Amino acid sequence: MSQPFDASRSLTAFEQDSTLVAVIEMSQSKWLVAAVIPGVERQPLKKLDAEADALLKLLQRWRDEARKAGADSAPALRAGLPVASPLPPSVNLI
Questions:
Q1: What is d(CA 62, CA 42) in angstroms, rounded to the nearest whole number?
Q2: How much is the pLDDT for 7?
Q3: How many Cα atoms are found within 13 Å in the side-chain-facing hemisphere of 75?
Q4: 38: which DSSP letter?
């Protein structure tokens, strides 16, 4: 039996000033993606077709916006799990 995730025991620090936070609501045909982008005041919301390439392109665009705003972001991908998996170079996605 797996144990519940306890964020207080996480080995990775959550750095709000350099982490692009994306939340993805997924269905079979459409994905709704919301984000908090470091250094950017707006909180974008985007509807996409259910395609991984489109999602990665969007996340990379938001990463580039964070960099232009002066945030030094380097991502890890977390899909509601306590374990982070690295994404392509330099984006903090949690």
A1: 11
A2: 64
A3: 25
A4: T
| Cα(27)–Cα(20) distance, integer angstroms | 22
pTM over 0.70: no
Q: What gap in Å lies between CA 82 and CA 66, rounded to an integer?
A: 24
**What's the one-letter identity of residue 47?**
K
Given a cut of 50, the residues of the chain with pLDDT beneath it are 80-94
How far apart are alpha carbons 59 and 53 in whole angstroms?
10
Residue 30 has, within 13 A of its CA and on its CB side, a CA count of: 3
DSSP 6-37: -GGG-SS---GGG-BEEEEEE-SSEEEEEEE-
| Residue 30 CB partners (closer than 8 Å, separation 6+) | 47, 48, 49, 50
CA 40 to CA 61: how far, in whole Å? 13
